[in-house]
Amino acid sequence: MTGMTLRVGRAAMLALISILVLSPTAGRAQVPQTISYQGSLTDAGGAPVTGAFTLTFTLYDAAVAGTTLWQETQAAVPVSNSAFSVVFGADAGNPLDPSVFENQTYLGIQVVAGPGVPGGGDPEMTPRQALTAVGYAFRAKTVETDTLNALSCAAGEVAKWDGAAWSCLPDNVDGGIALDLFCTSCVAESELGFDPATQAELSAVAATHTSDLAAHAGDAAAHHARYTDAEALAAVGPHTLNTDTLAGLGCATDQVARWNGSAWVCGDPGLRALRLVTVNDTVLAGQRAGILAECNVGETIVSGGWSGQNILNEGSWPAFFFSPQAWVVNFFNDKLGDISVTVQAICGTL
Question: Which fold has domain 272-349?
Fold first, then answer.
C-alpha cells in the first residue's frame, strides 16, 4: 500500500473550525489556544485504513508555497476505519498563537509513518485546505487586552474617556468642573444645624441682587431721596455706637473676664477648651512599649487612661506617669500574640 489520501468533506471542515471548548480561568473566561480537528484517512485506492499513524500538520499563509506559520508532528495518532481526531496546539512547548489567524490560513497534512506508509513517509497532501471564516473566531483572544492596565489612578478617582485616551479624574466630574466637594474632615449635610442653600437657590438670589443693583445704577438719585439726613440720624440716634461693654469691669491682676449668663464678671483663670487626645498602637509579643499621648504647647494634662486586650502581665505593668504635657503608659506583652492598646489623655488650655 503506497500513498495515503485525506478526505475531509465540508461538514468535517466545519467541525474542525468550530469545535473549541472554552476553558474558564480565575476572574474571566479565556479563548483556548487549541483547535480540535477530525479527518478521514484512506489508502491510494480509497480503502479505509486502521492503525497508529504519525501525521504532520502545517499552517501556511498561502495555498501554494508561502510561509510556514505553525507546524506540529503528532505520533501514534489512532485511526479507526479511516476516522481520526487530533488537537492542534495542545503541546505547551508549541502553542498556537492567535496572530496565525490574522489573515487567510491554509492547512497542509503529511502522513509520515504508519501501516503501509513507505520509509520517509508520503509527501504532503494537496491541495492545502483553506480555513473558513469561522476559524478566525480564534483571533477573538486579542480583545482581552486590558487597555486600562497601565492607568494608575488615585483613591476616589475614576477613569474617563476623552475621545482619544483614558485619564484619571475625580468622581462626579463633568467638563472639568467637580460636582462634589473633596476635602478632609468635611461636615456632612445631616450634621448642619440649618438647611443649606442649593446652587439653584444661590443663583436665584444672585440674579435678584444683580437686578436691584442695575435698577439702583439707573436711578441713584431717586433711591437716595427716600431718606433725608435728619431721618437717617434719627434712626441711628437711639443706638450707642462702639460701646465697650467691659470698660467698667475692674478685675485684679491675672483675673479674667467671664460671662455668667447675664453679665461679665471677674474670676480666676482656669482650664478651658478641654481636648481628648487618642493614640492607638500595637505591642508585639514579648515586647515592652511606652505609648505617649501628648498635649500641645500651651495645654496641660488634666487626666489620662488606657484600654486594650486583657492579656497583659498582672505584675507591675502597665505602668503610667504624668508630665505637665504628656501621659505615658508602659506596657509589657508576655503573651504569644500581639495586642492592640489605646492610650488617651485630656488636655486643657488655661
Answer: Immunoglobulin-like (2.60.40)
How is residue 2 annotated by DSSP?
-
Distance of CA 24 to the CA centre of its chain: 23
| Domain boundary assignment for the chain | 4-143, 272-349
- Max distance between CA atoms of the chain, in angstroms, equals 133
Those residues whose C-beta lies under 8 Å from the C-beta of residue 349, and which sit 6 or more positions away, are: 271, 272, 273, 275, 298, 299
Options 3.50.30, 1.10.10, 2.60.40, 3.40.50; CATH for 4-143 is 2.60.40
pLDDT tens-digit readout, 11-37: 333 233 333 333 333 334 455 678 889
Please tell me the distance from the alpha carbon of residue 253 to that of residue 313, in angstroms, as a whole number.
51
Cβ neighbourhood burial of 347 (10 Å; 0-12, 13-18, 19+): buried
Sign of the CA dihedral with 22 first, then 72, 136, and 80 last: negative
Whether the CB-CB separation of 320 and 330 falls below 8 Å is answered with yes
pLDDT in tens, 99-151: 888 889 999 999 999 998 998 899 999 999 998 755 456 555 555 556 777 78
* Distance (Å, whole) CA 35 – CA 98: 11
Q: How far apart are CA 282 and CA 319, in angstroms?
A: 16
Give every CB contact of residue 34 below 8 A, 6+ residues apart in sequence: 20, 87, 88, 89, 90, 96
Q: 287 CB contacts (<8 Å, ≥6 apart)?
A: 332, 333
Rounded to an integer, what distance in angstroms lies between the CA atom of residue 41 and that of residue 82?
5
The Cα–Cα gap between 219 and 203 comes to 25
Q: Is 13 left (phi over 0), alpha (psi -120 to 50) or beta?
A: alpha
**DSSP labels, 152-183:** -PPTTEEEEE-SS-EEEEESSEETTEESS---
CA dihedral (253, 259, 260, 262) positive or negative: positive
Task: Decide: 255 and 269 in contact? Cβ < 8 Å.
Answer: yes
Domains 4-143 and 272-349 share a fold: yes
